[in-house]
Design a protein that fits this description.
It contains 17 helices and ten strands. The chain is α/β, with parallel strands linked by helices.
């Protein structure tokens, strides 16, 4: 894994992106030159490169929006390729539609008669590139091998994360080295026999990394000197909190020490970051408003026709530094949804949701009016979702570090929304908080853009709604 603006990115995914950009640029430039060569070839060829660059950008964004740079499992390479084939056609179709729309405003970007061939060659190039990369990523040369120091519950969670094989990054847990005084929660088959030194073990098993998964490090059996020897010997040593942050984009509460948040870096609240985020919020919200205005008006009409009740719904939420504000949404539930006056978690197939409400919640159309909260400065486009004060007070008492999410403005969408399903319990709130903490610690314009692209995928495929 590599870090780009504090966000962890798979090396394989990064290489794949660079290769595909190169393939798309090359295919667009070469095919254009073949079609445009005439008596004015020198002048015409000079006009190829800007359209080629825009073509590559549009296609990459289209593939990102359809989730082609996010893979849930590496267990079956054939499944990866099947998903690629199923998504590459709509991705290029979306790219073609966007590029055609841009051509209406900028005729100079046209490829002429070679447009269809450029998209066809680009699609074949992407397909072949992914075939090579997916096969290469399964090679042992691309595999990260690690040893866990510890055999308790935290070590078991690290093993479960490795077994899930989520994402592009491939790693294997060679085994665990239990520490005296800690209960063993890992299978006996995963326990490694201790050798002369931890460094010798790492070299024998070709482990390139050691993950410290011991919760009580004050135990006299904790191998501090041997871990130092490994670090000096070229074997990377990290703790479980860093491992989860890197591999799962989570800051796990059960393995979190206050010192990790204090000394771990991140939490950028600088003037530059604030200004760039505000500009991003305004531009993204304005663009979404313009693009979805017809859809918003149609949804408003349908809500009104269904039961004659109010179209909009305001609800008090907790914002930055605990400040209260009224969030604006399209009404998706009956007017008497909380007639008893007590806030209630939404549930699967909630009977309070209207027929129109079920559709607009699935497509996230009910969230569109929150753009006005962004314009007023109460929310950001990307950030932790704002929660109701009634639930916040409960969660602050039950969940450690919950209030950290209120150190920045809440958002219309966020990392927890694109990585986890709709939260409707304290347990869900804990799991979503782990993503929120990652975002608060590592937030950047780059991460905002990635979340925005993932949000498009969530909306298109209706993930996580209730």
């Amino acid at each position: 894994m590599i870090r780009i603006f504090s966000h962890y990115v798979s090396k394989t995914a990064f290489i794949l992106l660079l290769l595909e950009i190169s393939i798309l640029l090359t295919s667009a430039a070469l095919v254009s030159m073949l079609w445009l060569v005439d008596s004015h070839a020198i002048v015409r060829i000079g006009q190829v490169y800007l359209p080629a660059a825009l073509f590559a950008l549009v296609i990459v964004l289209s593939m990102s929006a359809l989730g082609m740079y996010r893979h849930g499992s590496r267990e079956d390479a054939h499944e990866d390729m099947r998903n690629t084939v199923l998504r590459i056609v709509p991705a290029f179709a979306l790219g073609f539609a966007v590029f055609s729309l841009l051509n209406r405003f900028m005729p100079s970007l046209q490829f002429g008669r070679g447009s269809v061939m450029i998209f066809g060659v680009g699609a074949i190039g992407v397909l072949l590139t992914r075939l090579v990369v997916f096969k290469s990523s399964q090679s042992a040369l691309m595999e990260g091998r690690l040893i866990l120091v510890g055999g308790g519950a935290l070590a078991r969670e690290c093993m479960d994360l490795a077994a899930s094989k989520a994402g592009f990054h491939q790693f294997t847990v060679v085994g665990c080295l239990p520490v005296a005084g800690e209960p063993c929660c890992v299978p006996q088959s995963a326990v490694l026999p201790m050798e002369s030194s931890l460094l010798a073990m790492a070299q024998r098993y070709d482990a390139r990394e050691i993950v410290v998964s011991v919760q009580d490090r004050r135990n006299g059996a904790f191998p501090v000197r041997q871990l130092l020897e490994c670090a000096l010997g070229g074997v990377r040593v990290i703790d479980a909190a860093t491992f989860f942050e890197r591999e799962a984009c989570q800051i796990r509460i059960d393995s979190l020490q206050p010192s990790y948040l204090i000394y771990g870096g991140g939490f950028d609240q600088s003037l530059v970051r604030a200004a760039s985020k505000r500009l991003f919020d305004l531009l993204a919200s304005a663009a979404i408003c313009l693009l979805t205005l017809p859809l918003l008006l149609l949804a408003m009409l349908c809500i009104r026709l269904e039961d004659g009740g109010p179209v909009f719904y305001q609800q008090e939420r907790v914002g930055r530094d605990g400040a209260l504000f009224k969030v604006l949404k399209l009404r998706s539930m009956r007017c008497d949804a909380e007639a008893g006056g007590t806030p209630t978690w939404a549930s699967i197939n909630d009977v309070r949701v209207t027929r129109v409400g079920a559709l607009i919640r699935k497509l996230r159309i009910d969230e569109l009016p929150q753009m006005f909260n962004v314009f007023r400065g109460e929310m950001s486009f990307v950030g932790p979702r704002p929660e109701r004060a009634y639930f916040v007070e409960q969660l602050k008492a039950l969940v450690p570090y919950y209030n950290i999410r209120h150190s920045i403005k809440p958002g219309i969408t966020g990392l927890a929304q694109v990585r986890y399903h709709y939260g409707a319990s304290v347990d869900d709130a804990v799991k979503k908080l782990q993503y929120d903490l990652y975002y608060v610690k590592n937030n950047s314009l780059f991460l905002d853009l990635l979340i925005l692209l993932d949000t498009v995928q969530v909306v298109l495929f209706g993930k996580g709604s209730r």
